[in-house]
Design goal:
Helix content is 44%, strand content 14%. It contains 14 helices and seven strands. Helix 5 runs antiparallel to helix 8, helix 8 runs parallel beside helix 11 and helix 9 packs parallel to helix 12.
Length: 408
């Protein structure tokens, strides 16, 4: 940890003249799909993304897309990041999921006070950060900051990271004050990782438990949820580009839904390949002539295209408003969150429809549809992927009511 007052450049892998274009980054991600796919079984078996894959993603510069330019990042529009995430998830949804979460954390760190950015990036601007935003921590106010303890679950990619972001509620300073929900930033020396990730899907995300025992967290290493909601984050003083004026929740929601689109595309490709060669043992007819199967694949591809188009439009609207110095309406933010939250469930339904139409070829564990199917159903469990949580606000904000939950 250092106390530098300004960014350093010694560890940057690419100088300003060599910053890739968005198209180049997308092609780098596409080129990684075969290697990621070849390691997918290893990723699932070992319950973590292989180190080789993390290194490949780092070497391609993909973790830099949402990182501030002043810290050696590319500071690009969010849709570049999500295009990359979808491609990585075509090779392995767990890999796409971890990339989304870990690769999105440079965005949130940019919203923290400047000194927190120095603490993490001052000596190495390639450091990776994991998270668990469940507000389950126990917080005590002390001079200069807080004492934090607790046990958090679901910290995706944590074994590859040297810092963590953890959610907790700060007790009101005065009776009657509103509770203060914050994200706390801690170095690896202040927490331990417990091996607890044994699941039926998304096994490779390595979403282990994080345990903290009476760690001191200085004030500058906390991020208020209300600042993320109001887009009044302290980090916007130095990181003043339009990217960092977006509502934090709108970026985060997409980090945990976008990989579902890549996994569903992979499943549809696999279903098409099986269809081309399968002969039904019951009817003796070729599956490629089966109108029901054809309709299911066609519907699936159309739905994926619809979701991708809507989500791209939504982020373009948000980013365009930020560039223009305008704010998105609460009605838009509630609707956009609902649409993002619907993705995992719709994608799971698509693959669920395909499986019985492909007969016995689809039920073996080595079937290329099974892991995406399991992963998509696991992704539905994330609270941000439950559209039911947002239905009331979609209706209420249209009527001019304030949202019931700030994370939009």
């Amino acid at each position: 940890m250092v106390n530098n007052s300004a960014p350093v450049t010694a560890n940057m892998n690419e100088d300003a003249a060599a910053v890739p274009t968005a198209a180049e980054l997308v092609e780098r991600a596409r080129a990684l799909i075969p290697a990621i796919k070849s390691r997918a079984a290893q990723c699932t078996a070992e319950r973590r993304v292989p180190t080789e894959t993390i290194r490949d993603i780092e070497a391609a510069g993909l973790f830099k897309i949402l990182q501030p330019k002043r810290w050696g990042g590319y500071e690009m529009e969010p849709n570049v990041f999500f295009d990359v995430q979808k491609l990585l998830a075509q090779g392995c949804m767990s890999t796409g999921w971890v990339y989304g979460v870990v690769g999105g954390h440079p965005y949130e760190l940019a919203l923290f006070p400047h000194q927190a950015q120095v603490d993490v990036w001052g000596e190495d601007n390639t450091v990776l950060i994991s998270s668990s935003y469940q507000p389950v921590g126990k917080v005590e106010r002390v001079e200069g900051g807080y004492k934090l303890s607790g046990h958090w679950g679901f910290s995706s990619g944590s074994e590859h990271c040297n810092w963590v972001l953890l959610g907790a509620m700060i007790p009101p300073a005065n009776p009657g004050d509103a509770p203060d929900m914050r994200t706390f930033l801690l170095p690896r020396s202040d927490y331990r990782i417990e091996d607890a990730w044994y699941t039926f899907g998304l096994q490779g995300t390595g979403s282990q438990d994080i345990v903290v025992e009476d760690a001191f967290v200085p004030e500058h290493r906390t991020h208020k949820s209300v600042d993320g909601f109001l887009c009044t984050n302290p980090g916007q003083v130095e990181n003043d580009g339009p990217l960092y004026r977006l509502p934090w929740a709108q970026v985060f929601l997409r980090l945990v839904s976008t990989s579902a689109l890549g996994a569903t595309t992979a499943a549809l490709d696999a279903a098409t390949e099986i269809m081309e060669s399968r002969i039904s043992t019951n009817t003796g007819k070729a599956s490629k002539a089966d109108p029901v199967l054809q309709a299911a694949i066609a519907r699936g591809r159309a739905e994926v295209d619809e979701m991708e188009t809507v989500l791209r439009r939504n982020m373009d609207v948000l980013y365009g408003r930020s560039v223009a110095g305008e704010e998105a309406t609460m009605e838009e933010r509630a609707r956009f969150r609902y649409q993002s939250a619907s993705v995992a469930r719709r994608c799971a339904d698509i693959v669920d429809t395909l499986l019985p139409l492909l007969g016995g070829r689809a039920i073996y564990m080595h079937s290329p549809l099974i892991q995406p199917w399991l992963d998509l159903n696991a992704a539905r469990a994330h609270v941000a992927n439950d559209p039911g949580n947002m239905a009331a606000d979609v209706i209420g904000t249209r009527a001019g009511q304030p949202p019931s939950f700030m994370f939009i």
